[in-house]
Specification:
6 helices, 161 residues, Arc Repressor Mutant, subunit A, 2 domains
Amino acid sequence: MSKNKDLTQQIVADFAEGYSNFGLNPLMGRIVGLLIISKDPQSLDDIVEQLEMSKGPISQICRRLKERGLIEKVWIPGDRKDYYQAADDIFGKAYANQINKMQDNIEIAEKYLSMAQSMDSEDAEFIKKQMKVMKSFYKLMDEYNKKFVEAWEEKHEELRQ
């Protein structure tokens, strides 16, 4: 096995594990890992061949990754196949997807805090307290995330030059 192929396999495997650690499908990580180290767009057939997996699951996961903005479909003149490449700023986009999930937690806390406001019991007081803590936690996290995103956008722009 060539050193390049071995390195590719290691990267793909580590991305699969990383995605799995976030509770995501490891195949998402495999595809992302492959595409971020590919200079040229890859056809679905190329991805299938390199990952040694069947086309159905790869096609489905590519669709999901595209919906999340992490990969892009690319048109190759004269070729009817679908080609994919990693999105520009794939890491920033992946982070933005996680931020959106965290913002959902603010809404959850607000929903149950509001519902508990109209109740008058010891249990309701405890629920209100817990929802206030949850809301404060995620609001503070949101503030820091916004600062991080601004700093990352500046850094990403530097790296692109």
